[in-house]
Design a protein that fits this description.
heterodimer; A: 466 residues; alpha+beta; 5-stranded mixed sheet; B: 279 residues; C8orf32 fold; 5-stranded antiparallel sheet; Transglutaminase-like putative cysteine protease (chain B); Transglutaminase-like (chain B); protease (chain B)
Chain lengths: 466, 279
């Protein structure tokens, strides 16, 4: 077994390796079956788009933890804070003076005609100038030289419930393993989130602001997570119909009458959040919500319009954006990326489509992408036509040799490719990172796609204390 | 010219609505071509109005009713002095860069037919091309009430070559953006030269950003640039963004909407009489 790509065991895995040496041979399989049973009973599911067979499916859980050493995490944490601080400054600037456009850091048209840029937000300042309250940053390791950022998720990133559930499961299944490792707790995430949302409340909200989680409803693929988080935060889970806006103030219907709402952790996309400002036929939003928001009487987490920062084309400018806003070089590197909107880059990409990963700029969840090395000739040619028709819509990246982590495969352990999504919280009180994250694992041998919608699984992520 | 406007919108609900929320973009702002002399919004039921300004520079009133109601009338009345600036808009403080108005929206997405039509305008300076574009739409898309509805896209209206001012404006905007010229939608009122003061609906036209000149109006439905007969009310990326009233009712069911609009010039003698009174 190994924790890297080089065939050697990372230091952080040594205790685990020794423990496994002494464990009975079928222990992991037995624990794995137990885990599946627990998850089914708890109803932890995830709806998979395009899967006719079952609307809701269990995401496979791998019982072998992914372990990150203290020093390594220290570097990651610093890099994540730097990156999210820069993203918040970038959003404040884009919706404010637009200095970074004037300075030539990002092209004006890329921002102004970006589908995720919201002109409605121009000149607005959310409470405390915090735009991205919750970020999920996808990282991969490609070797000993550290982590690369694959993408930033700053709209409504999901997956944090798996980070928390997986830990709970592991503590239940392997209490003795925790006794041998100093694993930093991820359970503090919900407390961090609550404090962060409280600190982001509008100025008139008082000492104990009312917070709600706004969900599109049970048909959403992440509904389980929405209800899970509301429960952990100790706040109401509401749908659009449970809220209304009167006199530029948001209220929640309760059995004791209307109650003012100060902070909305919303898991509804911008387009659907207020039918009187955005898509008029949205049935899941709150009519007039944007008026209350513009009047500064409610906080939306995340702010409206943050998607312009996690657009895959804007991603390619992140190293420059970080330098411009923090004055420092980016600690976490970007994956080298070809911007297909640039003629030279497009030419190069078309010349080696079979080697590259090509992604749609506005896509997410592993949809609409081409993984050259594992695609058929026909698939590549079909994608080539799409790319030529709309080069602006695509970026391309080299196929990375992602690091692997030991993963249970039948009765034994095999290396499988993994990524990592840590969660970063921002509020006027500062930027914090939960010590852990969601490790996604590509369960098929050789596969590089870890998205749960594409058959990936998850692992518990251990960050070791010093 | 001085233009007097009296514009009523009446919503009659199928059942009493417990509560009504609306966003009103019914109030003009002054700029070089128009001076708002007086303006008021009235409702026939008790309602709170909160005034603000949106990113597009429009004055927005959020309307919230105070008690259940089965009908609601919003009446705006006012008077605006206008001068003919050849369609050029100046004296506005734009929060958005012109480049924002190159975005496409669901209603103004170009299809191959519109792209081909726009490219057929031929070469030339942007101002010249916009004039030709206006002429081509005016000549090629018949004005016909009832052929389209408010939710028709530019491409849909263009496909049948028929529509009302909203469609002409959206087709113009879509083509202008295709040609790389920022363009926006304007809702407003037209003092008709044929003396038809009672009108069925408000007017709409487009504005294009001409480098060095600024925003210039183009009324493709009438084939002319706005004159002192035009009063601008609101602008947006498309008709939806400049909609005079967007609202929702709680419990009102499906109702009916009636618009009464009266636009007329204030008589010269009356003007002199009034101005005497002020001096």
């Amino acid at each position: 077994m190994n924790g890297g790509g080089s065939g050697t065991i990372r230091d952080s895995y040594k205790t685990l390796a020794a423990w496994l040496e002494n464990a009975p041979p079928d222990l992991l399989q037995a624990r794995s079956r137990q885990a599946e049973l627990f998850f089914r009973r708890m109803g932890v599911t995830f709806a998979v788009y395009g899967d006719e067979e079952s609307n809701e499916r269990l995401i496979p859980f791998d019982v072998v933890p992914r372990i990150i050493g203290a020093d390594e995490w220290g570097g990651l944490e610093k890099g994540l804070k730097q990156r999210v601080t820069a993203i918040n400054a970038f959003l404040k600037d884009i919706y404010g003076p637009q200095d970074c456009i004037r300075a030539g850091i990002v092209p004006a048209d890329l921002i102004l005609t970006n589908p995720h840029y919201r002109p409605e937000m121009q000149g607005r300042r959310p409470p405390g100038d915090v735009w991205c309250h919750i970020a999920g940053v996808d990282l991969v390791r490609t070797g000993e030289d550290g982590f690369y950022v694959l993408e930033d998720n700053v709209r409504t990133p999901s997956g944090v419930s798996y980070m928390l559930e997986n830990r709970e499961m592991m503590m239940r299944l392997f209490p003795d393993l925790f006794a041998e490792h100093a694993v930093r707790p991820v359970e503090i995430y919900t407390d961090m989130l609550l404090r962060s949302l409280q600190a982001s409340a509008p100025s008139g909200a008082g000492e104990d602001p009312t917070i709600v989680v706004l969900t599109p409803g049970p048909f959403n693929s992440a509904y389980y997570e929405h209800s899970f988080l509301a429960d952990k935060l100790g706040v109401e889970l509401v749908e659009g119909g449970d809220l209304f806006v009167n006199d530029d103030t948001v209220y929640m219907r309760t059995t004791e009458g209307p109650k003012r709402v100060d902070v909305i952790y919303r898991r509804i996309d911008d387009d659907f959040i207020d039918p009187l400002t955005f898509m008029p036929n949205s049935a899941v939003g709150v009519p007039g919500l944007m008026s209350a928001y513009f009047a500064g009487r409610v906080t939306l987490a995340n702010a409206v319009g943050t998607g312009v920062a996690d657009d895959k084309a804007v991603y390619t400018y992140m190293p420059e954006i970080i330098r411009f806003f923090t004055g420092e070089d980016a600690i976490l590197k970007n994956v080298p990326t070809w911007r297909c909107r640039e003629a030279d880059a497009l030419k190069e990409v078309l010349g080696k489509l079979d080697e590259l990963v090509v992604k749609e700029v506005g896509g997410s969840g592993g949809y609409g992408m081409l993984v050259g090395p594992t695609s058929t000739k026909a698939e590549i040619e079909a994608f080539r036509a799409k790319l030529i028709a709309d080069p602006d819509d695509f970026i391309a990246q080299p196929t990375l040799s992602l690091s692997t982590a030991p993963t249970l495969n039948g009765g034994s352990l095999s290396p499988r490719h993994v990524d990592l999504r840590p969660f970063v919280l921002s509020s006027p009180a500062g930027v914090r990172v939960a010590p852990g994250g969601l490790t996604r694992v590509a369960l098929k041998e050789g596969s590089l796609v870890v998205n749960s919608s594409q058959g990936g699984g998850t692992k518990d992520t251990w960050v070791l204390d010093n | 010219m001085r233009i007097r406007i009296d514009h009523s919108t009446r919503y009659a609900y199928a059942r009493p609505a417990r509560f009504i929320v609306q966003m009103l973009r019914l109030t003009p702002k002054s700029c070089e071509s128009q001076q708002v002399r007086e303006w008021r919004i009235e409702t026939d039921v008790d309602a709170r109005l909160r005034r603000s300004e949106d990113a597009f520079g429009n004055i927005v009133h959020s309307l919230y009713t105070e008690r259940p109601t089965d009908a609601l009338t919003i009446r705006v009345t006012g008077e605006v002095s206008t001068v003919d600036t050849g369609g050029v808009i100046r004296g506005q403080n734009d929060r958005l860069q012109p480049g924002v108005y190159l975005r496409d929206t669901r209603l103004t997405q170009a299809d191959p037919a519109l792209v081909e039509f726009a490219r057929g305008i031929g070469e030339g300076g942007p101002l010249e091309r916009m004039h030709r574009l206006m002429g081509a739409i005016h000549g090629g898309v018949a004005f016909e009430v009832g052929a389209t509805s408010a939710t028709h896209t530019a491409a849909e209206a263009f496909a049948i070559r028929r529509g009302v001012c909203q469609d002409h404006a959206q087709i113009f905007i879509t083509c202008a953006r295709t040609l790389g010229v920022p363009a926006r939608y304007v809702s407003g009122h037209l003092n008709r030269s044929d003396g038809q003061h009672d009108q069925d609906a408000a007017h709409a036209w487009a504005e294009a950003w001409i480098e060095g000149l600024g925003w210039v109006g183009f009324d493709a439905a009438n084939g002319i640039c706005p004159t002192d007969n035009y009063v601008r009310i609101a602008t947006g990326l498309d008709a939806l963004g400049a909609t005079p009233i967007r609202g929702t009712s709680y419990g009102g069911g499906i109702g009916t909407l009636t618009v009464a609009l009266h636009v007329r010039p204030v008589q010269q003698s009356q003007q002199q009489h009034q101005s005497k009174g002020w001096s």
